[in-house]
Design brief:
alpha/beta; 6-stranded mixed beta sheet; 5-stranded mixed beta sheet; globular; 327 residues
Length: 327
């Protein structure tokens, strides 16, 4: 096999964040054993409907079922009929911050008359995540949160609580996927709030026919820092970011020295077929972008963005921007 010589005379980078380890399509001409590259682009994003047309109802998403529950007409009907269903998404929930707990109390008071289906709380769960007392402090913070939840019996008995660990929470350093918070930290909380799940990062949620992926990682800045070339200004950064993730079919299309991955669990980071929604809990400014029938949501950092969060309504796939500043 003869080596291919490349001559890059790039005039154009199509939209996206081009990092090392990305798959690209190169455009140009081949002459005298040299491929002259004039433009780079990403592979086209394949919508879930196209993938399903080839593979049928194979369950790529995970869970106990051998067939994809996405195909269930009954679940789809239940999903559309339950118009009150909502997911409240909060990132950087610093439980050691008095101000954050006050805002969460305000949030619970507002939702107590109509409890959400699920609260998705993403780390980091501490504003000062280092030191020998980190675990003890986190236990006490979770106890304070349990006290708040128990003050609102309607929420405690009706809502689910999903906790996704952040990069600075107790556990292995920066390697993805991350395991849940240790059981000895969460044991008391789980006893007092039975409908709570402490999950991995990333995690997957199946709600009726919808497939939802949640990841807590500061990916936008990390990908911008490791760009081969920063994108042109015809699209905003979040749109470039979303296109990159979906076209690569992977949550962290970065070199391993930048974002290490447990090889045995790399499949947990893949987003093929494209899910219905991906929640990127990132400290970057909040955004909601739809691309190829996939809704990509970033709630932003709760304490850093004036206590903003997102509310997702699965019946009509709408996202509502919410903020507790000034309340």
């Amino acid at each position: 096999m003869n080596p291919l010589n490349l001559n890059t005379i790039l005039h154009q980078f199509h939209s996206g964040l081009y990092t090392e380890s990305c798959f690209v399509l190169a455009e140009g001409w081949y002459e005298d054993s040299v491929f002259h590259v004039t433009a780079f682009g990403f592979p086209p994003i394949e919508p879930s409907s196209t993938t399903r047309a080839y593979y049928g109802n194979v369950n790529f998403f995970g869970g106990p079922s051998t067939t994809a529950v996405k195909a269930s007409a009954k679940l789809k009907q239940l999903e559309e009929e339950n118009e009150d269903a909502m997911f409240v998404i909060v990132s950087d929930m610093w439980l050691d911050s008095v101000e954050v707990l006050e805002k969460i109390q305000t949030m619970f008071s507002g939702y107590s008359a109509m409890p959400p289906t699920c609260f998705i709380f993403c780390g980091n769960f501490s504003s000062a995540p280092y030191g020998k007392n980190q675990v003890k402090s986190l236990k006490e913070s979770l106890k304070a949160l349990a006290d708040l939840i128990c003050e609102h019996p309607s929420i405690q008995s009706s809502s689910r609580f999903v906790f996704v660990p952040g990069p600075e929470d107790p556990g292995p350093s920066t390697i993805l996927p991350r395991p849940p918070l240790a059981e000895h930290i969460t044991e008391e909380f789980r006893h007092r709030v039975p409908f709570s799940v402490f999950t991995t990062n990333p995690c997957r949620i199946q709600y009726c026919s919808q497939e939802i992926v949640v990841i807590r990682e500061d990916l936008v800045n990390k990908m911008c820092r490791n760009c081969v070339r920063l994108p042109s200004s015809n699209l905003d950064i979040p749109s470039h970011f979303v296109k990159t993730i979906l076209s690569q079919g992977h949550l962290t299309p970065l070199p391993l020295y930048v974002s290490p991955v447990y090889w045995a669990y790399d499949y947990a980071l893949r987003v093929y077929p494209v899910p219905d929604a991906i929640i990127f809990a990132d400290k970057y400014d909040p955004f909601s972008i739809s691309n190829s029938d996939c809704l990509c949501i970033n709630p932003g950092s709760f304490p850093r963005s004036g206590f903003s969060f997102k509310v997702y309504y699965p019946s009509n796939r709408m996202v509502e921007d919410s903020k507790l500043q000034g309340l």
